[in-house]
Amino acid sequence: MQKILTKNEILEYSKKGIRQIPMEEMPLMTDLAREELGRLGMEIVLANESPKAPVSSPAPSQTGSVTPGSTGGGYGGAAIYRGCSKPLFKEVIRSGRKLAGTFIGTPHPVMTEYVGHLGFDFVCIDSEHNAIHLETLQKMLQSLAHTPTYGMVRVPTLSYEMVTGALDIGADALLIPQIRTVDDIVRLKSYSQYPPTGRRGVGPSRLWEYGDSIGKLGEAGDINRTTNIVIQLETVASVENIDGILAESADFVDMFFIGPGDLSMDMGIFGQFSNPRLVDTILYLREKTSAAGKRLGVFAGNFQAAKNWFDKGFDMVIINSELALLGTAVSQEMPGLRAAIGE
Ligand code: 3PY
Ligand code: MG
Question: Which of 1, 5, 88, 211 is 20 to 30 A from 259, comparing alpha carbons?
Answer without folding.
Answer: 88
